[in-house]
Write a structure and sequence with these properties.
The complex is a heterodimer. Chain A is an all-alpha fold. Chain A has one domain: Four Helix Bundle (Hemerythrin (Met), subunit A), CATH 1.20.120. Helix content of chain A is 78%, strand content 0%. The longest helix of chain A has 45 residues. Chain A is globular, with a radius of gyration of 21 Å. In chain A, 33% of the residues are buried. Chain B is mostly helical. Chain B has one domain. Chain B is 95% helix and 0% strand. Chain B starts with a helix and ends with a helix. The chains are: A mainly alpha, B mainly alpha. The interface between A and B is medium-sized, with 30 and 21 residues.
Chain lengths: 230, 40
């Protein structure tokens, strides 16, 4: 496993560079928006990756609620954290794309607002995990994650059910896309998914190690109660 | 000027990811020194 990680790391780095080349050079220039439309190849895959991570967080949280499995709790924490990072990318690249195309940085329409609410839910999830010292924290966090996950399909389908400034979805929506653009989009999604997987993996290892160290500290203070009081 | 927006979006994406990766590396280094302390 230790040898596999650097190999996958190098392969993912090559894939990311290839995806960047595809997005900036190979993908055709969109007729009305011009080159600024290429933000699409980072904005959309980041959103899809964030949604997938939040769904894994949901699955792991449900599993934790049923089985009280500590590994599921770590998976839930890790996917929420990495999902928030990807969702932050979506919330920043979106307005950067909107400014030259719509003439505004932000509008309180259903898709944009629900994405912001989704981000706030998972940020509050991470705050809960970071600052609550109760033994019930994983349980409370799992319950919050289950509620938060309900927001994910709402964000995705909001552009189907409400009139919004945001364009129709690429997959399953009314919008159409040039096959060459779709190809570049899928390459970028694959690259970001591999990257997210590796980040989750290293964060999982870190969290596991952190819990082992916390456990060792607890044992140490049990064996030497005066030492812990200092 | 419009390409400035494209550059900004790509740059911000990688700044966010690299900052987060940096935080993981920092936390890992801190944990390693804690483990060394525990071993003593």
């Amino acid at each position: 496993m230790k040898k596999l990680f650097p190999i996958l790391g190098v392969l993912t780095a090559i894939l990311l560079i290839y995806a960047l080349y595809q997005a900036l050079v190979v993908a055709p220039t969109e007729r009305t928006m011009g080159d600024v439309q290429r933000i699409f190849y980072y904005h959309v895959p980041s959103a899809w990756t964030a949604f997938i991570l939040f769904f894994i967080n949901f699955g792991a949280s449900v599993f934790y609620l049923i089985k009280r499995n500590p590994a599921a709790d770590i998976v839930a924490l890790v996917t929420a954290e990495v999902g928030v990072v990807f969702c932050t990318v979506v919330l920043i690249t979106g307005p950067i794309w909107a400014r030259p195309v719509w003439g505004i940085w932000w509008t309180w329409d259903m898709r944009l607002t629900s994405t912001l609410v989704l981000w706030l839910i998972y940020v509050s999830y991470l705050f809960l995990r970071r600052f609550s010292s109760s033994g019930e924290t994983p349980l409370l966090a799992a319950a919050l994650a289950v509620l938060g996950a309900l927001c994910v399909p709402f964000v995705y389908f909001s552009i189907w059910f409400f009139r919004t400034q945001h364009p129709q979805p690429v997959m399953g929506g009314g919008g159409s896309i040039d096959p060459r653009m779709l190809h570049v989009l899928l390459i970028n999604w694959l690259a970001f998914s591999c990257f997210a997987f590796l980040v989750c993996w290293s964060r999982y290892r870190l969290e596991k190690l952190q819990r082992e160290v916390d456990h060792a500290h607890a044992l140490e203070s049990l064996m030497d109660p005066r030492g812990s009081a200092r | 000027m419009r390409n400035g927006y494209l550059f900004a979006a790509y740059a911000v994406t990688w700044i966010i990811h690299i900052t987060y990766l940096g935080s993981i590396v920092r936390r890992y280094a801190r944990l390693k020194s804690e483990i060394e302390q525990l071993k003593k």
